[in-house]
Amino acid sequence: MRHSKEQIYKVTHAFLTQTGSDEYEAHLVADHMLNANLRGHDSHGIGMITMYTDYLKRGQLHPNTPPTLVKDKGSILQFQGNLGYGQRAGYEATAQAIARAKENGICMYTIANCCHLGRIGTYGEQAAAAGMISVHFVNVQNFGTLVAPYCGSEARFGTNPFCLAMPKTDKYGSFILDFATSIVAMGKTRVAHLAGKHFDEPVMLDTAGHPTTDPSVMWQEPRGALMAFAKHKGSGLCWACELMAGILSGGGTIEPSRPRDGSIVNNMTAFVIDPAALTNLEWMRREIDAMNDYVKSSPAPDPVNHPVLMPGEPERIRTADRSAKGVEISEGEWRAIVKTCLDAGVDPSVLE
Ligand code: NAD
Fold it and tell me: pLDDT tens digit string along 45-54?
């Protein structure tokens, strides 16, 4: 079933206002989630309301709660997320970090203890749109561990995303490298599980530690574990996110004394850099174009199905396609979304 971007926004926005968010927050969060769907990351789109409803009921997600600035040391900004919507905390903290980087050349900023930050590339896009370069390390707390370390069989990490963004040029869109350090994000196992699909290759370990393509191992107790990408390298980056985001934000790592109450709590340590503080912008843009031309000139054996793309390009292609044709959402997932909205008291006419 395909759903238009207008319908996805309307339903998400209605859920958010019905469950306590004011208009400003409902717009920010619904826009973030719609853009995740449009970019092809359904794991962070409208389907997340089926989890947020539970967090709201359990007092683990606080509507209308902005992040608070707890430390301001020139080029360092430290925010407390107060279990508010992470999409709001991420947007507001990134906006302040961009302004500070324009003054000082660089701003390192952290956010501790917000609810789910959503798609981290959103903040990379925000920085890149302001002409900035940004780097983001994120860890995931409270949900329970999901990712096994290289050579381990039990989970010890969250899906700890990493993002690096650079601004666009006249020729190329912005470079947005943004991924979970597990082979797939946890939300992608939810989407596949609800659609009754298996992955093409093993991306998880079952409870006996055997690689499997079956997403249901992540949605039963005891739970299996996601595999980190690229063996020891992805496992190492996942571990780095844990240390960088958990420690520098003050929010903590996922070591076993921390609570595991089932909601997603994120911490982020990020850097916004004004390239104008380091280099001539004309020269930078020429160099980006020359390098992108060079990389893309590498002959692709299957250019129609598998062209050489730069990070951020698949999302731009999918956004154009999905904006025009709508977003494919499985019947299982849409049923869960409708039930969540009706249970929350959303007017049924909004869901038609
Ligand atoms: P993914 O595996 O789809 O990788 C996406 C990245 O790879 C993007 O930068 C994309 O442009 C690039 N890419 C994809 N195909 C490409 C190709 N053919 N050529 C060149 N580049 C290509 O993403 P994922 O790991 O499934 O993560 C999905 C989202 O989940 C991310 O936005 C991430 O921030 C988010 N996430 C959030 C949390 C959280 O706790 N908030 C946790 C994990 C993941």
Answer: 999 999 999 9
